[in-house]
Amino acid sequence: MPSRKVIAFRKSEANDHLREIRRRKGVDGSEWKHDDNVRDLHRTLDILSDQLYQKETHFLLELIQNADDNTFEKDAVPTISFHIASSKKVWQMRIDCNEVGFEKENDRTKGYIGEKGIGFKSVFKVANVVHIYSKAYSFRFDRSSMLGMITPIIETYPPTNLIRELDRKTDRKQTELLLELLSKQEFVVINDELQKIKPQILIFLRKLRKLNVYTPNRDVQFEIQRAAEDQDLDGKETATLKSTSSHDRTRTEEKYLIVRYLQGSLREDDRRKGVQETEAVLAFPVDKDGRPLVHTQQTYAYLPINDYRFNYLIQADFLLVANRESVDSSKWNVGVLNGVYKAFVEEAVPRFNQVSHWSLRSQSLRYTWPLFLKDRGGSSEFWSKLKRRILEKLATDDVLECRKEGILANPESLSYIPSEFRLHREPLVEYENSKLRHLSFLYDSEIKNILPELKKMGVREMKFSDFYEELKYLIKKRGDSFLDSRSKEWHSKVTKLFRHYSCKSQAMEIALVPLRDGRWVKPSENNLFLEWDTTVAEVPDGIDICLVDHEACQDANRLAFFQWIGIRKCDQAEVCRMIMQLYNPFQERPLGNSVQDLMYLFQMPLRDKEALRKLKVAGVGQFILRFRYATELYIEYPNQKSIFSKYAGHPANPMTTLHPIYIKAAQKLGKEIEFVKWVCSYLNMSTLPRLVRYPTILTPDFDLLRDHAVEDTLILLRDNWEHYAMKFRISTKLKEEISEMNVQCIDGHSCRLDQTVLPIKTLKMAGPNLLFVDIPEPNDIRWLKFSTFGVLTNLCTEFYLRELKALAAHPVAESTSKSAVETLYIKLGSCEETGAILEVFNSCRLLYLEKLRRWVYLSECVWNGPQEVKLANKLSSEYPLCGSLFRSCLQLRDITLGDVIKELLSVKTSTSVPRLQQLLLLLNNYLPSNPSPGCLSKLKRKKIIPITTPDGPERMDYNSDWWYLADRQSLWDRFNGKIPLISFDVETVQKLSPLITAMDLSKYLLSASVNQKLTTAGPKIADMERTNDLRARARYFVQLIPRETTKTKAKLLNCLSNLNVWGVPAIKLTQEVHSVKVTEDAGILFDDLDDAKLEIYLSIKGLPQQIIDFELSNKFVGYCGITDHNFQKLVMAILQYPRERIAKLLDDYGLDGSGDFNEESVDIPRSASEESNNEWAIVPCRPVPLPTTPNSGTNILAQKSSCRVSRSAPSLRDRIPALDQRSSSIRIAATLPSTTPAQNRSNPTFLFSSTSRSTKDSQRYTAGTELTSGEDEMAGAKQSTSPTAEPEAETPHDAFDFGNFCSEISDVFTLFQDTAEVRVLPGRNPTQMPQFMDSICKTSACWGETFVNEWFSHKLGSDWDPISHWTSRNRNYVFPESPFTGREKDYADFTYPDTKGSLTMLLMKLRFIQDIPSWSSNPPKYHIEVKSTSERHNEPFYMSNNQVDKAREWTISWANDVVPKNIYMIIRVYNLEKETDPDFTAYVDPWNMYLARELNFLAVENYAVTPKELGA
What we know:
Elements: H1 11-25, H2 36-51, H3 59-68, E1 79-87, E2 90-97, H4 110-113, E3 127-134, E4 137-142, E5 153-154, H5 164-168, E6 175-181, H6 184-196, E7 210-215, E8 218-230, E9 236-245, E10 250-263, E11 278-286, E12 297-301, E13 303-310, E14 313-315, H7 331-354, H8 365-368, H9 381-396, E15 400-401, E16 408-409, E17 415-416, E18 422-423, E19 426-427, H10 447-457, E20 460-461, H11 464-478, H12 480-485, H13 488-500, H14 504-507, E21 513-514, E22 520-521, E23 528-530, E24 546-547, H15 556-564, E25 568-569, H16 572-581, H17 591-603, H18 609-612, E26 616-620, E27 626-629, H19 643-646, E28 657-658, H20 660-668, H21 672-682, E29 692-694, E30 697-698, H22 700-708, H23 710-719, H24 721-730, H25 732-739, E31 742-744, E32 750-752, E33 756-757, H26 761-766, E34 771-772, H27 797-809, H28 818-829, H29 834-843, E35 847-849, E36 854-856, E37 861-862, E38 873-874, H30 875-878, H31 883-889, H32 897-905, H33 913-926, E39 945-949, E40 952-956, H34 969-975, E41 981-982, H35 986-991, H36 993-998, H37 1006-1009, E42 1011-1017, E43 1021-1022, ...
Parallel strand pairs: 1-7, 12-14, 17-20, 23-24, 23-25, 33-34, 37-38, 44-48, 52-54
Antiparallel strand pairs: 1-2, 2-6, 3-4, 3-6, 4-5, 7-8, 8-9, 9-10, 10-11, 11-14, 12-13, 15-16, 18-19, 21-22, 26-27, 26-28, 29-30, 31-32, 35-36, 39-40, 39-41, 42-45, 43-44, 45-46, 47-48, 49-50, 50-55, 51-52, 53-57, 54-55, 56-57
Helix pairs in contact: 7-9, 13-15, 20-21, 24-25, 27-28, 28-31, 32-33, 38-39, 40-41, 45-50
């Protein structure tokens, strides 16, 4: 390299030089901005800097390489330093080098941009701006500028943004590079990479001697010291690396043994033109004693390339790919790699073998250098080839020391002797020539780590076979003298080795057994025995015996060896063994000799059963006489027949028995029974057939029995169960085969054994459909063991399941017995194996539904649920007694929300509105408290909402069509028929509140959708007097609400207790929904849109008090939702009655009159309307004490009319003469001869009618109901009756004209006459009395009871008391002097003890009940309920819960002769307000009629009862 010129530059000259460079780059003119070549070059540089190297920190190595190419002063220590620091959001790195600096001659800055100017570009992978300072030069490279990575930009150094920490560490006397890093990410990556820099990088650099690294958490200085002749080691080249850390003040040194090899004859490469040789350098790390320090090392091409998993450093002039991160596969590199190979095998290994410190000889490099060969894996094929070549070469070279005088030998000829083949650090076997083949023991210090590498070079580790061959050779060469010369310890260890390696065959070939006569023999010597523990028994003549030396037997290892190779003690057992040897290997023996041998063995105390079982003896069977192993033979007890003899002649019999001559020989000894037991115990013969050979292999003997002797096989197993039980446990195959045997059943069929049942009486009765196996003596308890094979032997879960499956397998027919199925269900319900039951029910159709006449899966059923859900199969009604099975065991669910949804999905366009109402109410009830958003998604787009539109009824979707829900009665009244409304009443809509929320329909509630405008004329005046009065009466309104709305009572009471009354001159209410406006101009207005309050507006134009009270009562009825008609009439009374008397008034109706209301727990007693059929306001009177129940000790029917008479009642009757007229006409109609029963159908319903109806009505009710002649005395009277037969028939027509009747007395009828009873407000006229128009129009209940009372009086005569038998408060009007004051809920309308049997005989005579003679001796008590209506007979009538409970309690058991004590009966009176006379029909025992489907009960508020249609 030419010497550098030292020229002193001034700053201006340096800047001129930089401008000249920029000019040559062509970037200072204006034309370059539009030059495509310039732009292309710029883009290329961008790509090159980003993609040149995979690692963005590779630039560090490039800078080190460039620094190593620089020029340094002679006295300078070439040094490069890296500094990295950060401040806030600024990250910088400074690189210093003490080179001579920039001069004009190196204007291309080759020392910094490398050989091709490429490596330096890698800094732009982490920085956009690089500042450079050297001597007078100060400039930067800016990647963001055009060609900014190769064109210098003049500037002043240091830049203003230099981090202070970096500025403090510079002296401006050396070349500096300052990198402005892109981000914190690059800062972190570079900092991590600087932590990884190691001092080994200095070994192969030409000039650099020091490398400093300064980071926020590391200050370290690396320095190298080279020694051409290191006298501390071997006088040859080494290098010592020193590392000094300023942080922890530590200093470390590591020495490397340097080996060089000059490789010539290289293939020329364009990148190494003219170069034909290069130097390969290896550096091996060693400690101070010259031992290897093994750890992974880098491979270098002056700078680190990569870690190829070598334990030493490799440096060579490899050609690298552009990113300098790996070598290519050029021929140049192949040649260089050959130099590395020769450096190791020709230079390094010979040098290793010369390094030997005698003080630590076995630990020196000579005996530890193979550690450098330790393979760490992970190399590419290029480097793996080098490792293989080194090992292959070393395997054939003399590189390892043998045990003979330190001679080196090739590894493939050497064996390593492990410690187990040594004794006192010497080989157990070795002679002069074998020392050349044994590896020196000096390698032992690191043998655990070295041995794997030695094996790779070809060194073998001595195996027992090698030891055996050398021992065999020595004994053969030197004979007994060699064995005599060995110590006892040697013999002990050698015999232990033979036993340890289980090399019995080899041991038998070496004479290691000393005899007492001094000879050494092989263990294979005949009749060789141990001398000790011999018995006194004489050894049989003709047997040759050799005895082992007694002293040798005292050593535990040698004794164990003798026993292991088969030398046994000499006793009677040995004689027996010698006999056994005659049979092993077996040679044919005469039958007589075989008998003698077996008899001798039988008489000796021989215990070796295994040896005896190898004995062969003569057997007989289907084959000719032959010797077989005793374990294959059977033996029979003398003089006893067995299954063997029974099938001895069978052509398929494979069983062989012991020859009889052996039994005869035992009989001569008198021990034939003992002999049989002995051969079974010791020779493993058997007296019973062997069924299994191995757990999975059955014997041919079993095949014979299974195929040809099934019944004998079953008996064999029964009689010898204990013998075969173990076989069943160890061989599932045998158990399965027996279970699958085809057996005969008692019905003549055959089936598998595991499908049968033991034919005992109890099982036959319980499972008539099962298969019973045909066996003898079935009651023998030993058959119970056959449950092992699946035979059912008792009543158990599996028994009931099989019987149930057998029933289900039969075709469904009329004979299918539901009771049998139910019995099985009950039995299964008491079983504990719930898992097995559930599994069977889940997989089979085992649920019998009688109404469907088919079997279904468990998944198709539910346990219980509302009757409205018809698609679900409800087992609680089908099998009410089987709850234990279906609920406890099978966990059968009840109807759920999903079932209700499924039911709704099945509705059709023909489904009625009540049906839809039922289902939607069910859906509402089954909604969870917090329903998931998609729980009702299946109902979308389903026409399930019945809507009433102005054009008629329709069906709509709940989620897509528009319609509204009337949640206020006032809104229903105003908008019904004007907009689409759901076809449910307000009460139903309120019940559906949870469903409305779940369906997101709250916005369609009328109360939420209506736009309301309230207009008043003039100011509104607070009527505090009426406000306080109505608030005080609020709690009594709440008591009239039905039971179903209990939860809303607290809210309603709160609202009523806070109502306000306003007086206004005039008021108008306008409400609008969906462009439909409704205007109401009324004297009284309730503003109830706000749930929390009620505002009442009253006109002050002088409306009569009667009208105000009447309108208020109607408003309160609608607002409070009072649905009971009788309770609706009480609203007027609550408004007008003195407040202190209201509680007494309500108590008269069976309500709690205290007026107290518990908002937390509302429990309203049943109203009077539930217990009677009164449809008009009852006149209260002073109560007369009565028993609380019809069955009390006091006879209410015997009471006389001695009670005090109400003062109000006569006045009332005096003021309504038309009422008396209608009552009189009804009484007359009841006594007409034409009012006779007409039997109109076969069920126990009879129809009473009169001929005063129109001809058309008569034909309608009598069609198809003709009576046979002579049915009763009144049947014929019906056809001959004339209207003129009775004078009452000429009653004036106006007596029946109720249209006029209501209007004529509306001004005079009042409930109260005594002014003391009337509520008087200050300033108001006390003579203005309320008009109960609605009450007068609904008096049908009183008229109906009057009619029935007169009819019974006429038919039963003196037996019927029209007063005492009438137990309803309607009696109070007709007989005010004898009022009924008991609790109506405890009585029917009429209570008649039929003490003389008059009514019973009448009903029998009319063929309404059966002619039961036993009743006449003890007639029952009749409880008669009257249901009245002005409509036709098929209109529904209503029964309260209390009345239904009575009907259910007093139902008649017609199936037996038990005389009922009580009979419940309903008389239905209809056509009350028509011009014709009333008609009536009766239902005796209505609950029985309901069960017979002659009456339909529908639960609404109470129960709506509808008779079955005529002819239906």
